[in-house]
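ok here's the first one, seq then struct tokens
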Amino acid sequence: MRAAESVSSFTDVLPRRGERVAVVGCGTSWFMAHAYAELRESGGHGETDAFAASEFPVGRDYDRIVAITRSGTTSEVLDLLAKVRGTVATSALTADPATPVMTAADAVAVLDFADEDSVVQTRFATTALVLLRAHLEAEQALPAGVRPIAQAVQDAQRALVLPLSNEVCGAEQFTFLGTGWTYGLALEAGLKLREAARVWTEAYPAMEYRHGPISIAGPCRVAWVFGPVPRGLADDIARVGGHFVSASADAAGDLDPLADLIVAQRLAVRLAEAAGYDPDRPRNLTRSVILGNASA
């Protein structure tokens, strides 16, 4: 809730209504950028695109570029900000004020209260999205059906204690699905389980699942939907023996999709620890990717 309450402190950082905006990040931050871009544009706030920082189409016309970077040191983000400096307004969201992004971007929102020691990003990601979502809410630009932040926060508190079923904890494969802004959450859930627990995961737009990915559904395999469930999808998954998961259809009651992501984060920790892995220190990963020559 602290992020939501700080919106008024960052009016010079957050996009203005009507601006054409690109949101960039790497890894988890890219997926949060995707979720925000969908929320902003579908809420009528302005045309909004999301890119992995390394794939940004330099030269395309935007009024503002917003970079999400927990560490403030990610090479691809800093390289992009350097390339566009002086040609377009740039903003950044970061957790560390003692990093190069503080001068690389024109304006910066520091969410240092959401920083974390773990290599795997969880708290900063959800905090950044709450801030961006709360700003849309303050501008009365949330899409229809998206809950107020106050309700989402309450749901997040419930998500911290909801039980994880034996079917989910014992699954061998997970496919995460979403629609619109929740597709970004599905991508992030898949990444969390891969990073922390080395689990086979995939993620797709929910309506695309039946166009091929359902071929891997079966016993001990989960299809987990964030947000609205397409008509008939649960029945199709059950018919082929898969295990269907949806906070919208769970006996515990409906959850905000962002709160449902927290449940997936908890599952990643559970599975990692059960396998004897350190969920905060995955193999082959560091807190920030710093390249010798990011523009090469």
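and now the second one, same deal
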Amino acid sequence: MRLLVTGGRTGYLGRHVVAAAEAHDVVAVGSADADVRDRAAVVALLERHRPDAVVHTAYVQSDPDVTAAGAAHVAEAAARVGARMVLVSSDVVFGGSDEPYDESAPPDPVSAYGEAKVAAEAATLASAPDAVAARTSLVLGDGESKHEQLVRSLARGRDGVLFEDERRCPVHVGDLAAALVELAGNDVRGVLHLGGADAVSRLELGRLVARRDGLDPAALRGGLRAELSDPGPVDVRLDSTLAATVLTTRLRGAREFLAP
């Protein structure tokens, strides 16, 4: 399988997808190869490489043109060359609920980034009948993620809090990368949730990271996201039961993959 990975040169998740796909013919691309906002450039890129599948990890949280229009351009170009499209989406397509979200839950974003991801999903799923929108959560686990770097700085005295009321399903970057490569080569289609097995707060997640790294978990202070003027999504746990039935890759929970 020839697999093209957007964000595969410098992106955190993209680099892990490239590593997970070492058994395949991998084409890692980044913004230097084509600006995803430029439709013609994206079409030319995929026509040049003609992959069998695309894993689209590239996004810019503050730029809806990259996140939404960029995904639409990649999906369109993938369809033109007959490539399977796997979009990496997010739990922020939801606004928050007392119950976990499964794949049948309608998106209800409460942030601009969430709205951009909803648009990216819609374009992807409309592009071809075998396209996949893979929603995931916080991605970490190798020690190098922004989440882990933040926890270490807070544990060492930087001012700040971790939210006690924000609940999500963090996933190990290696598990997620392996699942995305598996999706690129199978026949699963539509929306699929790829969250980790454990639902935890930001504060609990931080304490797990601190404990693993030999830092004092008690040094981390909690706060409430709901008290912010614009809190965004607070409780966006993903029900990933379906993924466990259609994938061989196991998505571990944070309490397992961050164990000392």
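notes on #2: Residues 2-142+171-196+237-257 form a domain with the Rossmann fold fold (CATH 3.40.50.720). The mean pLDDT is 97.
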